[in-house]
Amino acid sequence: MNVLIFNCGSSSQSFKVYQVTDQTSFHPVATGKAHNVATKTQAVPRLDWTVKADTGSEEVDLSTHRRAAEEILKVLASHAISIDAIGHRFVHGGEWFHETTRITAASAANLTKCFHLAPIHNPNSYSVYETCRDLLPGVPQFAVFDTAFHHGLPPEAARYALPLKLAQEHGFRKYGFHGLSYKYVSERAAQLLSKPIGDVKLVMCHLGTGGSSVTAFGNGHSVDTSLGYSPLPGLIMSTRCGDIDAEIVLELCREGHSADEVSDILNNRSGLVGLSGFSSNLEEVLSEGERGNEDCRIAAAAYVNRLKTYLGGYYWTLNGADAIVFTDSLGTQSWKLRERVCGEVDNLGIHLDKLKNRNAPADAEFFIEQPDSLTRIIVIPNDEEVVILREVLAAL
C-alpha cells in the first residue's frame, strides 16, 4: 500500500509517499517540496523531488497550492507511483475536529467552516484535497489537525479575558498550532534527553519560512503556546503581524476598511514583508540588513526581540526547562537567528556554543550548548509527515 502525505504550509508544500507493509513497517519511496508557493519573495518558485533513485528540480508555476499539488501528482504519475490513501495536514480543526477524520461530504462541509479561522492555511489544504479528489477519484483522504496537540491546554492558558458567555457562544479560545511538528519534536527531545515524555520540560520554537510559534511543554502536554484562536498572533512571521494592539484593528475598521481588507493587511501584508518593505524571507531580510538597509535591520531585530520575549515567558512558566528546541526550516537552517536569540543570555545559565551552532547540520539532531549550560539547546529537524502517516494508518 502507498500512502501519500501532503503537508501544506502557508508558503510551501511538502509531500512524501510511504510504501507501507504494516503499522510499524514503512519507508518513503518519493519525497519532495514545492518552495515559494504563492509568496512575495525574491526567490524563484521551485519543485524539488526524489522518486526512488530519480531526483529532479524544476522551476514551475506555483502561483497557488492547487497548482503545486497538480505538479506533484504529475511527477508521481510520470514515475508510475500508485496511491492508495492520502493524508492532509490541516492547521485548524475549530470546535468540529479534535482528532484525525476521514474526509467525506459531511466532514468536508465542516472543514469549510474552519476557513476563516486559518485563512492562509485551511483553504490551501482544502484546495489540495479537492485536487486529489478530482485527479485520484475514489482514493480515501484524511485530515490531520495541528490544533489537536493543544486541545488539552489548561483553561488559564486557553481562555481569553472576554465575557465568558460571549467566548463560549463564538468558540473564542486559544487553539494553538504546529501541533504535528511539536508532537514529533517533543517525543524526539525526550528520547535524546533520556527522559520519559511526562517528565521532560521543553520550550520549543517552530520557526518556519511562513508561520512560526513557541510552545511550553511539561507533564506530557502543551502548557501554553504563542498562536491562539487563529495562526495570526504571537511571533512576527513572514507576512503575519503577530501580537498587536487590538485597538489598531478597531481603528482600521472605523476608517472604513472591511473585515476582509483588515484580514488581508494583517495576514498577507504585515510581518517581515511589512516591516522591511523588502521580503517575507528572514534570511533575505537579515542579509539585506547587514548590507545597510535600515528597515531590514529593524525588521530582523524586531523578529528576534519578539522571539526572546516568548522564550523568556515560557521559561518562567515552566520554572526552567530541560531544553530549548529549534525546529522547522528557519529553526534548523539559520545559525544567525539562533545566535541572536541565545547568544547573550549567559546570566540565565544558558550558554550557547557558537562554533557548534554555526556548524550544526540542518538535517540532523544536534546539541549546540556549552558543557556548563544549565539548559540544553537542541536543533531537531521535524518530521510532520511521519506523524500524519501514523494518524492515517491508525484511522485506516
Shape: globular
Largest sheet: 8 strands, mixed
Class based on secondary structure composition and strand pairing = alpha/beta
Which consecutive residue ranges, at least 5 long each, have pLDDT under 50? none
> How many extended strands?
14
Average pLDDT across residues? 94
Gyration radius over CA: 21 Å
Spatial strand order of the main sheet:
5-4-3-2-1-6-8-7
**Approximate helicity band:** 25-40%
Q: What share of residues are in beta strands?
A: 15-25%
**How many distinct helices?**
15
Termini separation = 12 Å
As an assembly, this protein is single chain
Give me the strand/helix succession.
Answer: EEEEEHEEHHEHHHEEEHHHHHEHHHEEH
In short:
The chain is α/β, with parallel strands linked by helices. The chain has helices spanning 65-78, 105-113, 122-135, 155-158, 164-170, 179-192, 246-254, 259-268, 271-276, 282-290, 294-317, 328-333, 335-342, 354-359, 384-395, and strands spanning 2-8, 13-22, 25-35, 46-51, 54-58, 85-90, 101-102, 141-145, 202-207, 212-218, 221-225, 323-327, 366-367, 376-379. The strands form 2 sheets. The protein has an 8-stranded mixed β-sheet, with helices on both faces. Strands 11-10-9-12-14-13 form a 6-stranded mixed β-sheet, sandwiched between helices.
Describe this structure in words.
- The chain is of the alpha/beta class.
- 38% of the residues lie in helices and 20% in strands.
- The chain has 15 helices and 14 strands.
- The chain has helices spanning 65-78, 105-113, 122-135, 155-158, 164-170, 179-192, 246-254, 259-268, 271-276, 282-290, 294-317, 328-333, 335-342, 354-359, 384-395, and strands at residues 2-8, 13-22, 25-35, 46-51, 54-58, 85-90, 101-102, 141-145, 202-207, 212-218, 221-225, 323-327, 366-367, 376-379.
- An 8-stranded mixed beta sheet has the order 5-4-3-2-1-6-8-7, sandwiched between helices. It has a 6-stranded mixed beta sheet with strand order 11-10-9-12-14-13, sandwiched between helices.
- A hairpin with a 2-residue loop joins strand 2 (13-22) and strand 3 (25-35).
- Helix 10 (282-290) crosses helix 11 and helix 11 (294-317) crosses helix 13 (335-342).
- The radius of gyration is 21 Å and the shape is globular.
- 47% of the residues are buried.
- The model has no long low-confidence stretch (mean pLDDT 94).
